[in-house]
Every structure is written in C-alpha cells, then in structure tokens.
Specification:
Layout: E1 2-3, E2 9-10, H1 17-30, H2 37-40, H3 48-59
GO cellular component, one term: nucleus
InterPro entries: Homeodomain-like_sf, Myb_dom, Plant_Male-Germline_Reg_TFs, SANT/Myb
Keywords: DNA-binding, Nucleus, Repeat, Transcription, Transcription regulation
Length: about 60
C-alpha cells in the first residue's frame, strides 16, 4: 500500500473477491463511468484508473476469454 498526498491509503496489488463485488455493484448502479468516484465515496481504496482497468480487463460481462 502507498500513501497519497492527502494521506489516504491507496491499495496496490492483487484484487480480492470482495473488491470485485464492490466494483461490480458500483457499475451496476452507476454505469461504467466516473471511476474516481469509487474512492471518493469510500467504497474502495483503489485509484479510479485501477478500477477502470479491472472492469475493462477482467469483470465486464461482454469480455471475451
């Protein structure tokens, strides 16, 4: 983990199932946009970029494997 300049802890590294669930619930409610809102709402200690990349590369429903 690393500290951001406003002293909020930003988590780095592997995602856990609970984080994936929070991210999927956020996208189901608000749509795949406003990624930085996830951290500002206190839902996940991840950056907006990290959330967007997780969604685009691993979690979106129409992802081809």
């Amino acid at each position: 983990m690393e500290r951001h300049r406003d002293e909020q802890v930003i988590k780095k590294g592997p995602w856990i199932a609970e984080e994936d669930e929070v991210l999927m619930n956020f996208v189901n409610k608000y749509g795949p946009k406003d990624w930085s809102t996830i951290r500002s709402m206190g839902l996940l200690p991840r950056t907006g970029k990290s959330c967007r990349l997780r969604w685009v590369n691993k979690l979106r429903p129409n992802l081809k494997m």
